[in-house]
Specification:
about 400 residues; alpha/beta; Molybdenum Cofactor Biosythetic Enzyme, Chain A; Molybdopterin biosynthesis moea protein, domain 2; Molybdopterin biosynthesis moeA protein, domain 3; 4 domains; six-stranded mixed β-sheet; 6 helices; about 15% helix; elongated
């Protein structure tokens, strides 16, 4: 495959996401388990918030009319009581968060009064409702607190808890089957011989899927055999997404395209992405159900970059999650970076003292500093030393 004939990343991704339908399955979870989940229906307030007239600072509960004309040296004496109601000429100590006593309609700041022998001298005029958060001033009973599709965060969950809510209905997490393939792969922990490699890409993709908001199942290694590959695709059709690893290049043992095509359709095989250009997208159709398939290269660097780009987007769309928003910061290139024109390239960099040095994707991780990725657009082939680039933290 020549890269000039390959579809762009944007085109391939858009085409694939057209067949990725957000899940309809829902479940109910406790608030303790609701962080990072997506609401599947609107939440209505079961009560007002606050559910009483709330004092928002320390001071004295008063009738506002009793403080008229106070200030600029003018004061008003009020009797301090310990029980309500607060009638004209009287006041009561109030604390932040406490309920406004009956009869009072405002709060006088602690700093705006002098207390002595059961009386205070008010030195500031306040208006009705001053320093009071009225009942329902935040949320009214029956109103929408959070809408369907809300991506819950700890502060949102705290607000739900304030309203006495203990459970919420959310969309289920996408179920993703990860299928490592290849005759050369062996299980981690087994004895290894020349020509064989430990299977690690499945582990990496499984962990990434969890970060993207999905639930991953890691399948056993499948040999380079088209019948066995078709069999695992058949079993995987009950999942929301199948991600296979290996068998996506152009060699005699690269059989994923044929296996997917025999059970559904291949949308693209080959994308203008480096590393990762041998990946493919498609779907299998079993008993009327269409299951999206991403078949990624077995070379770890290529697998990782394809996962950053395609698996991330697919899992988050399935789970009703917003697109990933990775941290980005500017760094100065410590050396020249050369890529292929017409390909979107992803290069890992080590960042120290504001300077970014290209490194191998999985290598040199013992270096100090931070690690990020520079995405080189299709219309660029060279970044010169000293240029400032955006380092994206995909991980």
């Amino acid at each position: 495959m020549k890269h000039i004939d390959l579809p762009s990343v944007d085109r391939a991704l858009a085409s694939f996401l057209e067949i990725v339908e957000p899940l309809k399955r829902t479940m109910t979870v406790l608030l303790e388990d609701a962080d990072d989940r997506v609401l599947s229906k609107d939440i209505l307030a079961p009560m007002d918030y606050p559910h009483y007239d709330q004092c928002i600072l320390d001071g004295y509960a008063v009738q506002a009319a009793d403080t008229a004309n106070c200030g600029a040296g003018s004061t008003k004496e009020l009797s301090l009581i310990t029980e309500g109601p607060v009638n004209s000429g009287f006041c009561m100590t109030a604390h932040t968060g406490s309920a406004l006593p009956p009869g009072a309609d405002a709060l006088l700041r602690l700093e705006a009064a002098t207390e002595s022998a059961g009386r205070i001298l008010a030195s500031e005029e306040v208006t009705k409702g001053k320093w009071i958060w009225p009942r329902g001033g935040g949320i009214r009973e029956g109103s929408i607190v959070n809408r369907e599709g809300m991506h819950l965060k700890p502060t949102d969950i705290a607000m739900l808890a304030k309203l006495g809510i203990s459970r919420v209905e959310v969309y289920e997490k996408p179920q993703v089957l990860i299928v490592p393939t290849g005759d050369e792969c062996i299980r981690r922990g087994d004895e290894i011989a020349p020509g064989f490699v430990y299977e690690t890409n499945g582990l990496m993709c499984s962990l990434l899927v969890k970060r993207y908001g999905g639930s991953s199942t890691l399948h056993d290694i499948v040999p380079d055999n088209e019948a066995l590959l078709r069999d695992v695709l058949l079993k995987g059709a009950s999942h929301d997404l199948i991600v296979t690893i290996g068998g996506s290049s152009a060699g005699g043992r690269d059989l994923m395209e044929q296996a997917v095509a025999s059970m559904g359709e291949v949308l693209f095989h080959g994308v203008a992405l480096h590393p990762g250009n041998h990946m493919g997208t498609g779907f299998v159709k079993i008993a009327g159900k269409r299951t999206p398939v991403l078949f990624l290269p077995g070379y770890t660097e290529s697998c990782a970059v394809a996962a950053f780009t395609f698996v991330d987007a697919a899992v988050r769309r399935l789970g009703h999650l917003p697109p990933s928003c990775h941290p980005v910061h500017q760094a100065e290139l410590a050396e020249r970076m050369v890529t292929s024109l017409g390909m979107r390239a992803v290069r890992k960099v080590n960042i120290q003292d504001g300077k970014a040095r290209p490194i191998k994707l999985l290598g040199e991780s013992a270096l100090s500093g931070r690690f990020g990725y520079v995405v080189v657009p299709e219309d660029r082939a060279v970044f010169e030393r000293g240029e400032f680039v955006e380092a994206i933290h995909f991980e």
